[in-house]
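Case study 2.
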Amino acid sequence: MSFKDKSALRTPPLGRRLRLGFVGGGRGGLVGDWHFSGARLSNHWDVVAGALSSRPDNAAASARDWMIAPDRSYTDYRDMARVESARPDGIEAVTICTPNWNHAEIAVTFLKAGIDVILDKPMTTTVADAEMLVKLAQETGLCVVLTYPYTYHAMAQQARALIANGGIGEVRHVHLEYLQEWNMEAQPADTQIWRQDPQKAGRSMIVGDIGTHAYHLLHVMTGQDVESLRADMFVCGGAKPQPDTAHINFRLTNGAPGFLMLTNAAPGQYCGLRIRIWGTKGAVEWDQEKPEYLKFIPFGGEERSFVRGSANGVLPEAERYVHLPRGHGEALTDAWGNLYAEAGIAIACRRSGRSAEDYHLNLTGPEDGLRGMIFIDACADSHAAGGAWTNIKKVGG
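Prediction:
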């Protein structure tokens, strides 16, 4: 099928929706609502089971919110994996949107039960656990999908296709930033306290929490990886045990330099994920807070602003992610819907023995999750060494 067959993205390959369970995501947090909305919007999933909270009262209330039957609301994810894998109508995949330190153990439990996994980022808290999950996914043949939703915006894919087609020439330098304000106080909200504990959040809260989003966007848009970096980390908000800010210089695999600034302690900044990529023939700029627009500046030519929609310069690789005409706003929920649609297609094809090749999927798999963990570790290593240049370990090498 062609890139322009947009209906294919929202049409379940098996002629029915897949059955999805959730671990985590109950009342009191936003992440579960994002995943749930994306799954519903995609038209590929029915959410039928969940261990939505470690607190039984919250788990039961959350299950009622999502119209999950009481007998399929669990208080322990291990019970959920055991019971659901034995049911003829059991879940076919599970979404894991718990805090970081639980990811590996929960993913292993469901993979060993024969259930495909959709996993919130970062993949784990250690590179060793991420490598273990990559190996287990390979051994079981099951899907492990990492959820980096920003790259599923149509204009993020427009930038990717434009660069891949030579629209800006060879990439020569890059500037990235992801700026927020929620972590200004010394004592975060109760639901965020775990982010200050390296045993629970990993070696760098700021890089693991938002830096991996920026790193993944860079990788997707440029088609390149980071080869080396140097990182300095700071506490710029109230006193806290983990840095809330990072300044990262890096070099891409082609030698091009770049800079990434991360902070969640910048007053007036909300969710400012922004990227500028300069090449030998032009440049692109994209701002996640204005996701329907992509600025394209050909060197010596007229500046253009691509607007999310059909035709008018929007490439087929991006148009397939468009669902509404221009002027009818699409936002992060639509990006989540695109992500869950691609996950649904991949898992349905795997389970039915069909090829997913014709769907032109841009799925983020376990190797991408491992790359994110290696990036976090390299930043932490560099900072610990006083900002020394640190080489990135290649996945598979």
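The chain has two domains: 6-150, 154-290+292-322+370-384.
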